[in-house]
Amino acid sequence: MIAVEPISLSFGTALLLGLSFGAGPCNIACLPYLGPVFLATGRGIAGSRQILLPFSLGRIFGYVLVAASAGAVGSLVQKWLESPWVHWVLGSATIGVALSLMIRRRCTGGNKSCSTPTRSPGKVPFHRTALSASSLPMPSALFAMGMGMALNPCAPLSMIMVSAAATASISAGVWLGIGFGLGAVAIPILVFALGIAHFSNQLQLHLRQWRGALETASVFMLLGMGIATAAGWLSP
Question: Does the pTM of the predicted model rise above 0.70?
């Protein structure tokens, strides 16, 4: 019988694997989840980082978590990722983003229930100011959505897991996860920041009279994606 040497990957190889994955299947898998977010917010290229940064950081964290766990407990991670709770992570995070967008729409519309009292000098002790978009839980929900995307195994990620398991080292798994994660998010960031964000912004500008309906449809589309993912009817 011929002995098979365990696969061993370097940081650079993991980075290249991530780039190859991010150049193709990743963009297709991310589009149904991130596309409605850009349509609902209408942010252009300048504002795309507020969406892409927490989402991408969540993905990198998810890849690091998977690879480090593989380095610690080996093949048990594969069974762990095949359990139903993984769908719940992505599904519930997607629902959270949809609910955050709903709250954002109400607050930017001047709803008094979205205002918060702040102290002001003078005779009037308090006045009300509208909540800003940055005060909403959307960044953390986007981070969780990105992490949920990373917890769904693909062929390149399986190679990272096998290599991390072969090292039996958590630190080696962390470096492989970082390399794969950086490569996996690089091209999608460019595609979504320069393409999808610009397209969504132009769509809202040209369909200004239908802006409210477009935002509402995007939110409910995202909500449906979250429910379908959490129920296991849809897998990215």
Answer: yes
